[in-house]
Design goal:
Length: 149
């Protein structure tokens, strides 16, 4: 997996780490099981094909998003490019109690500091288990190696 700017959402979520998309792409529901209950209960019975998503910069399945609307309007690749970073909408998103929203905000801070390509170079090891190469997602870690080399 190489860096694809189109898979970097405006808010800092990187699509290749999305539990839903990873479950679809690997055809494996194990990525859905450790989701926070607010997501798991709502989506646990869906067919994996329903999680096929072109990402935030396509016709995503996540719904309306203030960060996406703003990023598109300002023609930014992510919120890290904005002179108003971090704005109150992004801070509210990061502080809403959903762990991957806070992680996404941390991604943006690193992107702002060192650029998207450098961020991805450091981030890429989070996408696969260092012990066996298994694909990981937001909440799923390799049970054999706990995602560690």
């Amino acid at each position: 997996m190489g860096f694809d700017v189109n898979r970097l959402a405006y808010c800092g979520i990187y699509c290749d780490q999305c539990s839903f998309l990873t479950a679809y792409e690997t055809n494996d529901r194990k990525h859905l099981q450790p989701l926070p209950s607010k997501y798991f209960e709502r989506h646990s019975e869906k067919e994996l094909s329903e999680f096929a998503c072109p990402g935030c910069k396509g016709d995503n399945i996540c719904g309306d998003c203030k960060m996406k609307e703003c990023g598109m309007e300002k023609k930014h690749g992510s919120c890290a490019e904005c002179d108003e970073f971090p704005c109150s909408d992004l801070e509210g998103f990061a502080g809403d109690g959903v762990p991957h929203h806070a992680w996404a905000f941390e991604n943006l801070k690193k992107i702002k500091e060192s650029g998207a390509e450098n961020w991805y170079r450091d981030f890429k090891p989070n996408l696969t288990c260092g012990g066996c190469g298994e694909r990981l997602s937001w909440y799923y870690t390799c049970p054999q190696h706990n995602g560690i080399a």
